[in-house]
Every structure is written in C-alpha cells, then in structure tokens.
Amino acid sequence: MLRIDALKAIYSNEEVLVIALTRLYFGTQSDGEVIQFIKATAIDWESFYKIISINHIRGFIYDVITTWQIETDQQVYDNLKKEVMKIGLLQSHHIAIRNQLKTEFDLRGVTVIPYKGTTLAARYYKTPQLRENLDLDFLVSKHDLPQIKACLLSNGYKLKHPIQEHLMPLYVRWYRELGFTSYKHKLGYTCSVEFHWKLLDNYTGKFHQYDFFVQHLESYADIDGTLHQGLSPTYDFLCVSSHHLVRESLNKFKYLIDLACIIQSSSVRLNWEEIDKHYKQFGFSPVLHAGICTIEEIIGLPIPVSPAHGVSYRLFTTTEITQNLRGAYKLVHFSGLKLQMGQKIRLKMRYMLFSILPDHREFSRNIPLWAIPLTIPVKGIRFIYKRVTGRY
Fold first, then answer.
1. CATH code of the domain in which 298 resides
2. Domain assignment of residue 188, given as a range
3. pLDDT value at position 283?
4. Is the pTM of this model over 0.90?
5. pLDDT score at 92
6. Which DSSP symbol is given to 335?
7. Which of 130, 177, 260, 266 is found 20 to 30 A from 78 (Cα to Cα)?
8. Cα–Cα distance between 282 and 236 in angstroms, integer?
9. Which residues, given as ranges, of the chain have pLDDT below 50?
C-alpha cells in the first residue's frame, strides 16, 4: 500500500483525502492518520465535494465521515447529509423495482442475472445505501429478449430507444444492451433498467456471456436476510470486473470501491486461479493484474495473486472521458497498460469501426433491413471529415 506522501506525488490533496477515507472503511488506514492529514493539508472543500459527486461516492464518504467522526467543512457535510437522504430513497425504489421485475420474470420462466448496482450494494457493502446507483442491470439471454420486452412494456416501462422489430436481430448482433425507463415513483423518481446480452462491446473484445454465467447461480442472503438467486462470488467478480476494469478502466472511483467490497466480504470464497484463468483466456490478463496492483496500492487489501505487470490504473479520470473515439482510446491509456504497436493498431481499428456503425437513431427508423449497411459508408465519410478537421 502506498504511503500518503507517495500518493501526494500522484494525486491532488482532495483525491488523496478520498483515498484515505476509503482506507478507513476497509480498515487499512487509522482515523488518527486521516485526521492528521486533514489538519496538515490545505483542502479545497469545493473541489473535494465535486470529486465525490462525479465519482458517485457521496453516500460512501458521508458514512465514513460520520462513523469515524472526521471533521470536515460544515457546508460539505450538510450538503452530503441532504444528498444521502435522496440516495437512500432512490436505492429503496431500485430495490423494489428489482424485486418486482425478478418476480415477473420468474412467473414467465425467464432466468435473468442481476448484477452490479443495487444487487452488488445489498450483497457486498456494509449497508446498501452506501452505494449510489444510476440504473439496474441484468444479464440476459438474447433469446429471451422478446419476452422481456413484452413484460416491461406491459408494466408501464418505456424503451429508451424504440428499436424497430425487424431490425432487432442486427441490433442484437452489433450492440450489447436494451434500455428501459420505469414508471414514475410517487416522489417523481424514475429508474433506468438495462438488459445486457453481452458484457463487453464488440470493439472492446470478447468475454463470457449469459450462457456461461447462468451455470454458476446460487442462493444467497442479502444483509437484511432476504434470499435471492445470484452468481457465486468468483463469477460475480468476473462479471462485475469485466465492466469496471475492461470496459470502463476504473474511470470512476466507485468502481474500485465495488471490487474492494467484493474482495473483502467474500475473500475466502474467491477463487483467484479461476478468475485469472478466464481473464487469460480472453487476453485480458494485463488488465486484471493492473486492477489487482491498483487495489493493493490504493486501498491496501492483500490479494493472493502476484501481478505479472507492475502497472496500475490512473484514477479519478471520469471528467477526462468523452463519448467519442478519442475518449474511448483514453480508457486504455488510463489503465497504465503498455501496448505493443500491433495491439494499438488493432484497438484503434476496432474503435473506428464501432464509431461508423449505425447507432440507435438508425435502428429506431422504419427503414428496410438492407438499407442499414448503407449508412456505414456515409458515417465513415463523416468520421474522416471530423478526424481531418478536428471537429469532434
């Protein structure tokens, strides 16, 4: 685990404070050391609040500050207290939605796998309210999509992107998710619900899908004792980390906390040889090793795997990611991985291909199936124009 002085050479004072408070939660840093750091360091509290907000860790940081009675800026504390109340209400709404949908799917004989979000919070965090959730995620079989879609629409949900029915087979082949928006809660809340038949986008690479993970379901109890069916911890870690490490490159600090919570609460049940084997199978071993290195350096949790590569992720990068080719390529840069020239070329080619594929707008239009591929050269010309002019 890196010492505070070493962290200050890499991160801002406010980011180091976030790391120190996170270590308090996991028991790898003493409250005395954190208090001393705050007293001896100039903290821009407005910047600190912005960091924890965009990384979606307000509830987590508030709980640590309150539990260990860490003295902070009063305005920041008051703002957090108000936000945490909203987060708790939204979390309760998400749990109700998840349980309702799970019941509906069971009645229809459809087996879905809840993962990330509310499911992860209720199973691995000390209390579910510590994690901010933006949506609900389910891993599903692509063959069950017609039933899932019918179920959601009949219960008042709306498709985020109304994909034309005759274009769905091509959409499913090229993309990874179908999103819905729930009905409004009495307090005005809505919930985004996403169904994934792939864990990774085509341009990122291949990884196990639903048919593999559904073989590793088990019964487990939430913190409140409620019984659920979900993935065993080893395969839950595989499923979640493929998103956090591979797809998103830990661009939100929340993702690092997620993985650390799984590791700490399920340490005796995690089969690291199995995890390493599957990452190696799809060529993502360097990514896993960078993640392990980061967890050990930043949070201080010991992991019984020796990273083969002495690199770690660059954290707190969420504000630097943009939704285009340049932003997507930055994700690899932030992981700290050193790619060979051939790997860089292949990666860029995959990103470029993805950027010129038809998007939700094309698939939402009532056009014949044969016309969809014709949009590719048009978008390709636009892409080249943007690259030449620099107008992203």
1. 3.30.460.40
2. 4-389
3. 86
4. no
5. 82
6. T
7. 260
8. 17
9. 321-331, 333-335
